[in-house]
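Practice problem: predict the structure.
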Amino acid sequence: MKRGAKIAFGAVFAVLGFALAAAVAVNQKPEKSPLNIQTAPLAFLDGGETAFAKMPPAPRLVNFWATWCAPCVHEMPLLEEAARQNPAVHFSGVAVDHPDLIRPFLRKIPVTYDILTPKFDIFFLFDTYGNKTGALPYTLLLDEKGGILARKIGEFHSAEEINSFISGNLP
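Answer:
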């Protein structure tokens, strides 16, 4: 092969290499920064937006649930009972369903604590906060500043179990 052909051949490979590297760089997704549960965007069922940081500071029990999750449905009346027994702790349910499915469900199993929906990738939050499998129900107990005091993957079986979860982990 002549010297000129070798240079042209090398130049073509160099250009292709740079093009491939640029395409890969453009298509790479930026790494996500850890999601902060206090500032994560949430929505009320009526459409209003909020975040835990916008709510009055208090210890908070956050229960992630879905209408199709039998253990979640079973523990909702227990959470309601525990919420009444622990007025100093703010209870919030974060449903991983569409509001159009949640509203009729809550007519059958009403609760008085806040029901919210996430406006972010819920499974990224689960991963960030220790629920690597994405299992439901998933419950976090937060301090007034949003720090995690305790977490539970799986169903609570009694209001007393929820009360112990709270009292055993609050400072």
